[in-house]
Amino acid sequence: MNRLAPDEKAIQPAGLFTHILLKDDPLTDLADWLKPAFRSIDQMSLRQYLTEKGASPEALRLMDVGVPGWDLDTGNALDFLRKNHYYFWEAKNGPYSVVRDGTSTLTDAMGASLKRPVALDKRVVHIDAAPHGVSVACADGSKYSARACINTIPPTVLKDIPISGGVPARQREAWQRQRSDQSIQIFFEFEEPFWEKDGLPANMWTDGPMEFFAHTPSITNPEGVLRAYINGRAVQPLNRMSEAELRATALKELVRLRPAAAGLVRVGHIHNWSTYPFSKGHIANFMPGDIGRYVDLVGAPVGAMYFAGEHNSRTTAGIEGACESAENSVVAILETLGKA
Ligand SMILES: Cc1cc2nc3c(=O)[nH]c(=O)nc-3n(C[C@H](O)[C@H](O)[C@H](O)COP(=O)(O)OP(=O)(O)OC[C@H]3O[C@@H](n4cnc5c(N)ncnc54)[C@H](O)[C@@H]3O)c2cc1C
Questions:
Q1: Residue 108 C-alpha to ligand 1 middle, in angstroms?
Q2: How many domains in the chain?
């Protein structure tokens, strides 16, 4: 039974969040969220903001499943508003294109164009950030020094890396307070497309333990790729399971929802972003009240160490946010070193 309010019933569960969040969107400019005029929204959780926008209790329950963050209570309304404002602004530029042979061909080509190859498999364990130079020590004993450095380690990981040279306590607090969305992706291998047997779409949005099932095209499998995508608070009970339990739970849930999948599907690769030690989560978000408190501290240079990464974006978000912040730091370094 659809328990949504009459004016919400026509909206699919996956669309509720942006529909209600962007109702009477007060932001115009992409950098508006940094203006003092919007500080009152910074103080609000998503639950408070969406309730104020008229969301029914059932819409709130469904949005708490789908929210691309931890949950409605720890999500900062202004942070989600500004990111979604950007996504919709970006979508106005027309449909996106995909990179032929996969996105990594682009980054591989960028890496290959460098004078010195990218050093892979290096885990930074200590940083010495002095005003006129930075030294980085790696777990394998190697060290790198330079007049300046751009640090793109996500705040969830960075907060635990020792840095000598004096990170202000409030800045470390700013990294600690960043709440990174938790997510797990479970990929299914299948003999034949079960959705052609039962005639229903392969994609599913559910409020069960596996949350979303997405079917996407693949360059290696003509039948595409099917994955379950679980994010936010729903990740916690799954993280308490052994891998064997998680695999069994995922398969059982898929077959419960789609009996036609029985015997045709296996669980393949599982990628857990929340436990992956080099990200410990998905996209970083501010908690309520934290934009005003920390936005200028998260990426403030420490000595000659500058910061980049999506969590330091000012106008864009996601990958574009990472690129935007990197450009800002490159310009700041060139200005400091007198090369601009
Ligand atoms: C499943 C998923 C889907 C997404 N889809 C999209 C999308 O469609 N569009 C979009 O714009 N964004 C998307 N994003 C978000 C996007 O991937 C991020 O915003 C972007 O990658 C952030 O870039 P970054 O450089 O800040 O951090 P990252 O890409 O996380 O890079 C940080 C790097 O630091 C390294 N690192 C961490 N710790 C250490 C250490 N101690 N020593 C050395 N290296 C370390 C990591 O290995 C990593 O290479 C998605 C993210 C996920 C997880």
A1: 15
A2: 3
My answer on whether 164 and 204 are in the same domain is no
Same domain for 169 and 189?
A: no
Range of the domain at 30: 6-91
Q: Say which CATH number the domain at 218 has.
A: 3.90.660.10
The rounded Å distance from CA 89 to ligand 1 centre is: 22
First-last CA distance in the chain: 62
pTM metric for this prediction: 0.94
Tell me, letter by letter, the H, E, C secondary structure of 22-53. CCCCCCCCCCHHHCHHHHHHHCCEHHHHHHHC
Give dist(CA 128, CA 164) in Å, integer.
Answer: 5
d(CA 282, CA 277): 12
- Residues 245 and 325 grouped into a single domain: no
Q: What's the 312 CA to ligand 1 centre distance in angstroms? A: 13
Binding-site residues, ligand 1, Cβ < 6 A: 122-124, 152-154, 157, 273, 278-279, 282-283, 309-310, 318-320, 322
Q: Atom 51 (ligand 1): residue with closest C-alpha?
A: 282
* Centre of ligand 1 from the C-alpha of residue 155, in Å: 11
Count of H helices and E strands in the chain?
13, 13
Residue 93 has pLDDT above 90, yes or no: no
Identify whether 148 is part of a domain.
yes
Q: Is there a domain that residue 106 lies in? A: no
Atom of ligand 1 nearest to the CA of 308: 26
Q: How far apart are CA 208 and CA 210, in angstroms?
A: 6
Residue 101: per-residue pLDDT: 86
Q: What is the mean pLDDT of residues 188-217?
A: 94
| Position in ligand 1 atom list of the atom nearest CA 157 | 38
Residue nearest to ligand 1 atom 37, measured at CA? 278
For 207-218, the pLDDT digits (tens) are 999 999 999 888
Nearest CA to ligand 1 atom 14: 318
pLDDT digits (tens, 9 = 90+) for 120-162: 999 999 999 999 999 999 999 999 999 999 999 999 999 999 9
